Amino acid sequence: MYNKDLDIFKAVAETGSFSKAAQKCFITHTAVIKKMGNLETHFGATLFHRSTRGVTLTTEGQILYHHTLEIMDFASKAIAEIEAVQHKKHPILRIGCSFMYPIDPFILLWNRNLSVTANMQFRIIPFSEDESYKKLLNNKFDCIISPYNHFRATDNISILPLGSYHFCLAVPIQHPLHGLSQLSFKDLEGHRLRMMITGISPLNDNIRNHLVTHHPQINIVDIQDHYNMDTFNDCAESGDILLSLDCWQQIHPALLSIPLEESYEMPYGLIYSKESPPNVLSFLEQLKTE
Questions:
Q1: pLDDT tens by residue, 44-64
Q2: Residue 244 contacts residue 264 (beta carbons within 8 Å)
Q3: What is the gyration radius of the CA atoms in the chain, in angstroms?
Q4: Cα–Cα dist 175/172, whole Å
Q5: Domains annotated on the chain, with CATH
Q6: pLDDT (tens digit, 9 = 90+) per residue, 213-251?
Q7: Do residues 35 and 11 make contact, with C-beta atoms less than 8 angstroms apart?
Q8: Quick one: CA dihedral 161, 167, 173, 174, positive or negative?
Q9: Apex CA 134: angle with CA 154 and CA 78, to 5°?
């Protein structure tokens, strides 16, 4: 049977840290250390070089890491083949879900179209934002609810539009602006604002161009090419304001989502691969026509 501790081993190997692996796997730092110790006992080998700067793989650890990737690939293919057989007997739509990709809009869509969804079951598949969901589509899950301002034609993705998220500002509770009921870009002058780097989202680029032109006193701080939990943690700890979306207003207890006076919206929808299984494509196409 597949040993789930290999998932933790992979996380430690790739992050170089027991603490970061614990955050990624949603378990405690102590649990990671204990499980890695058990793995080393099982194999009778030291898998990590430990130092104050983190951990690196020993030769034995590198061998295990290489085979762990192969094992995970084989396990994923086996699950996919078994599920393919099950899909023919009992069609199941797998939808990806995480803190950053909530499925509330999908549940509303499902319940509004019971005549279509009656013969289809759906399964919620959790995943980490550290994994690119574009790589997981048609593999780990069939579809996901996501903003879609940043796709390219080469992504081979289809979209069922569902609505728009409103841009807002995630303000740390210790920030002097956190008590306001609404904020404008004018209010941000003299403050630090974190937002996505250029070249990823045309809509984000338009907002940045507006800020640079009309509000140069705002200190714009670049973040990575996608939002994850670290994005919100960093803002809560640094005191920086974050350009955010209203679907993320409950993400972090130390950040207050305040409506933005300027009206900017990000479209979102049901995202799925054009290479999805025929029964999935047929079902989603039926939803489009409802």
A1: 999 999 998 899 999 999 999
A2: no
A3: 22
A4: 5
A5: 5-74 (1.10.10.10), 75-162+268-289 (3.40.190.10), 165-266 (3.40.190.290)
A6: 999 999 999 998 788 888 999 999 999 999 999 999 988
A7: no
A8: positive
A9: 120
Yes or no: say if 166 and 193 are a contact pair by the CB < 8 Å rule.
Answer: no
For 159, list phi and psi in degrees, rounded to 5: -135, 135
The pTM (predicted TM-score) of the whole model is: 0.68
Strands (E), the chain: 48-51, 54-57, 92-97, 121-126, 143-147, 157-172, 192-196, 219-223, 241-245, 255-259, 265-273
User: What's the CA gap between 162 and 67, in Å, rounded?
Assistant: 42
List, in sequence order, every residue forming a beta bridge with 225; answer none if it has no partner. Answer: none
Give the CA angle between residues 78, 125, 194 to the nearest 5°. Answer: 125
Using CB atoms within 10 A of its CB, is residue 38 exposed (0-12), middle (13-18) or buried (19+)? Answer: exposed
Distance CA 235, CA 223 (A): 10
Q: Tokens at residue 76, please?
A: 């994923």
Q: Which of 245, 251, 235 is nearest to 173 (CA)?
A: 235
Q: Are 128 and 27 in contact (CB under 8 A)?
A: no
- The secondary element (H helix, E strand) that includes residue 24 is helix 18-25
Q: What's the mean pLDDT when you consider all of the chain?
A: 87
What's the Cα-to-Cα distance from 92 to each of 66, 74, 152, 161, rounded to whole Å? 32, 22, 28, 21
Q: Are 122 and 92 in contact (CB under 8 A)?
A: yes
Secondary structure (DSSP) of 96-164: EE-SSS--HHHHHHHHHTHHHHTT-EEEEEE--TTS-HHHHBTTTBSEEEEE-TT--GGG-EEEEEEEE
